[in-house]
Each structure stands twice: as C-alpha cells, then as structure tokens.
C-alpha cells in the first residue's frame, strides 16, 4: 500500500506486551519503507551498555543520545524477493542493531578488538545484509569502513538503500557556538552571530556480492579486510550453507575479529549445526543470554564468535601496537 513506518513508533520497548510487538513487526515487514532512528552520540558509542535499558533513570542527554545526535535511515523493502529473504528487515536485524547501539563501545575496547579509538578504527562487514538497515546504522555511527554483502540476487535493493541514505555520509555544517560582533563604534549595540563548523564526512558503505559458496566472491570481500567486526542476521536457514558461512567468517576475519550472528530458528537442522560448529570460525563461540540481548522478541538468538590466538597465530605475531 506504499506505507512507510517508523520502527521506534511501531514496536514497543523491551518488557512491553509481546503480542503488541509481534503486531508491530508484522506491520513493518509489510511496509514499503522502514524509517529507523539511529543515535550517534559520541558518549553512547564509547560507553554502550548491555541489556536494553539505560538504567538509573538517565536522560537522553546523560546517555549521550540527544536529538542533535540522531539521524534517520530510510530503507526500502521488497517482499517479491522469493528466492532470497533479503527483501525484508527481519526481527533479528533490529535485535542486533539494538545490541550494537548499547554495546559497541565495550566491544571495540575489549579483546580481541582492542581499538582505543573505538568504532572509528574498526572495519565492519555485514553478511546477508538484505535491505541494509543494520550495516547502515553501524556506518552512521562512524565505522572506519563498512562493507555490506548479500547474494547477487539481493544486490539491487541493497545498493538502492545505500544510495537513498548517502547524504548521511557527507560533510555537513553544524552550529558550534555564538560570537558577539560590534556594529559601528564602541558605544553601539552588539549583535550575535552563530558560528558553524563543517563535520567530517563518514565512510560511505560499500556493497559487494557475496555467495558464500563462491570462492571468488569470498576472496574479493576478504581482501577488503581483515574486519574487526562481522555482523550477520537471519543467515542460518539451510544446513548445507552453515559450513560455507563459517568459512566466509573465518576468511574475512583476523586476530582482532569478533562476529555477531543473530538468528531465529527457521530450520532446526541448520540451527543445530550452526550451534555445534560456530566456534570453528574464529576459535570461540557463546550464545548470548537472553537477558543480555534484552530484545522484545525472545525468538531472536544471538551468537558471539571471537578470534583466538591459535586460529590466527601468525597474524598476531605481525600485529603492531596501536
């Protein structure tokens, strides 16, 4: 029907009525476009908290997310992509975006990433990016570089959404203060002018086709890395693709890599195979507790995969101190 819906206005916060959330997700999945507000405050990016709550009654200003620090993404959806689930922003993408918003500072500062300057020093890769909302949100927060990938059949939609939001990555004038300026002689009244500065442009996301079973695709994306952060949502739906998926994560990773894979159990055999084998990609894997994920849809399951010394031993010896 051509409707555009705003995620934060449609889906209740964590702890709200699950039926209301389910209805909101249904409406979002059937909308032509989804609007999504991204908080990009510097303090929030550095000091993200887990669990889905700000806690201690903090205001937006205290948490570093004021109106001035918000941007809005608009992503088109295409429900006609029957051979790929990449046409719709699924619940798992919203869940992982929320987790990144609240935890990105901790993730960047902790092993194995350990980037002192946070996200601005991290390359981010999204596998199965679909409509691109998750990767665009991370890029808007200032990632050093962001590569969005999906099956070739899903690329036209992904590329359109990156173009649609390209203005978010351009330099823009921002007010930085006020200066008093005299008119005429020393006894004349003063007038106030607002001074501005031009913000630095952010790295625009790059789109690349990636069929996990295509060695040429995997090699091309891997050459853009290694990536400190790898993200993927709703990518576990076929048991035969679990091994190629994990191999792609390993090929694109390095000694500083952490990967987050958020899924719903769409195929029991594939889900079980991924759960058993997830640690083979980077060295370790854990299922993030539901209370830590803190998302309103409890069917979303988040896995955290981290690089270990033995998997990337040679590369670790070559690391320089940042």
Layout of strands and helices, then pairs:
Blueprint: E1 4-6, H1 7-10, H2 18-29, E2 33-39, H3 42-46, H4 60-63, E3 70-76, H5 91-109, E4 123-127, H6 133-140, E5 145-150, H7 155-164, E6 173-182, E7 190-198, E8 206-209, H8 215-222, E9 229-233, H9 242-252, E10 258-263, H10 268-277, H11 279-282, E11 283-287, H12 290-293, E12 301-307, H13 313-318
Parallel strand pairs: 1-2, 4-5, 4-9, 5-8, 9-10
Antiparallel strand pairs: 2-3, 6-7, 10-12, 11-12
**Count of beta strands:** 12
Order of helices and strands: EHHEHHEHEHEHEEEHEHEHHEHEH
Report the structural category.
alpha/beta
Strand order of the largest sheet: 8-5-4-9-10-12-11
Low-confidence stretches are 42-68, 316-322
Mass-distribution shape: globular
Range of strand content: 15-25%
Largest sheet composition: 7 strands, mixed
How far apart, in Å, are the first and last alpha carbons?
A: 51 Å
Count of alpha/pi helices? 13
Radius of gyration: 21 Å
Residue share in helices?
25-40%
Mean pLDDT: 83
Short characterization:
The chain is α/β, with parallel strands linked by helices. The protein is built from 13 helices and 12 strands. The chain has helices spanning 7-10, 18-29, 42-46, 60-63, 91-109, 133-140, 155-164, 215-222, 242-252, 268-277, 279-282, 290-293, 313-318; strands spanning 4-6, 33-39, 70-76, 123-127, 145-150, 173-182, 190-198, 206-209, 229-233, 258-263, 283-287, 301-307.
Q: Your description of this structure?
A:
The chain has 322 residues and is α/β, with parallel strands linked by helices. The protein is 33% helix and 23% strand. It contains 13 helices and twelve strands. It has helices spanning 7-10, 18-29, 42-46, 60-63, 91-109, 133-140, 155-164, 215-222, 242-252, 268-277, 279-282, 290-293, 313-318; strands spanning 4-6, 33-39, 70-76, 123-127, 145-150, 173-182, 190-198, 206-209, 229-233, 258-263, 283-287, 301-307. The strands form three sheets. A seven-stranded mixed β-sheet has the order 8-5-4-9-10-12-11. It has a three-stranded mixed β-sheet with strand order 1-2-3. A hairpin with a 7-residue loop joins strand 6 and strand 7 (190-198). The radius of gyration is 21 Å and the shape is globular.
């Amino acid at each position: 029907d051509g409707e555009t819906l705003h995620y934060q206005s449609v889906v209740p916060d964590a702890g709200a009525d699950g039926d209301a959330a389910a209805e909101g997700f249904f409406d979002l999945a059937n909308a032509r476009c989804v609007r999504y507000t991204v908080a990009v405050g510097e303090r929030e990016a550095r000091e993200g908290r887990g669990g889905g709550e700000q806690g201690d009654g903090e205001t937006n200003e205290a948490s570093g997310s004021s109106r001035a620090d918000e941007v809005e993404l608009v992503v088109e959806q295409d429900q006609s992509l029957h051979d790929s689930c990449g046409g719709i922003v699924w619940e798992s993408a919203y869940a992982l975006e929320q987790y990144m918003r609240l935890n990105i500072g901790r993730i960047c500062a902790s092993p194995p990433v350990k980037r002192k300057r946070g996200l601005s020093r991290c390359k981010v890769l999204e596998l199965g990016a679909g409509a691109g909302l998750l990767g665009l949100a991370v890029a808007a927060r200032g990632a050093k570089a962001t590569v969005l990938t999906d099956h070739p059949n899903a690329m036209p939609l992904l590329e359109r959404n990156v173009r649609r939001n390209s203005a978010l990555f351009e330099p823009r004038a921002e007010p930085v203060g006020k200066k008093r300026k005299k008119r005429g002689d020393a006894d004349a009244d003063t007038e106030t002018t607002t001074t501005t500065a031009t913000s630095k442009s952010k790295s625009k996301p790059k789109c690349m086709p990636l069929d996990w079973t295509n060695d040429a695709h995997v090699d091309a994306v891997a050459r853009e890395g290694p990536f400190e952060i790898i993200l993927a949502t709703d990518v576990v739906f076929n048991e035969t693709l679990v091994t190629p998926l994990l191999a792609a994560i390993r090929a694109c990773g390095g000694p500083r890599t952490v990967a987050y894979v958020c899924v719903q159990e769409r195929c029991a055999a594939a889900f079980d195979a991924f759960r058993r084998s997830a640690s083979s990609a980077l060295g370790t894997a854990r299922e993030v507790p539901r209370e830590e994920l803190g998302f309103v849809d409890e069917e979303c399951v988040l896995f955290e995969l981290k690089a270990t010394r033995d998997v990337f031993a040679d590369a670790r010896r070559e690391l320089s101190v940042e």
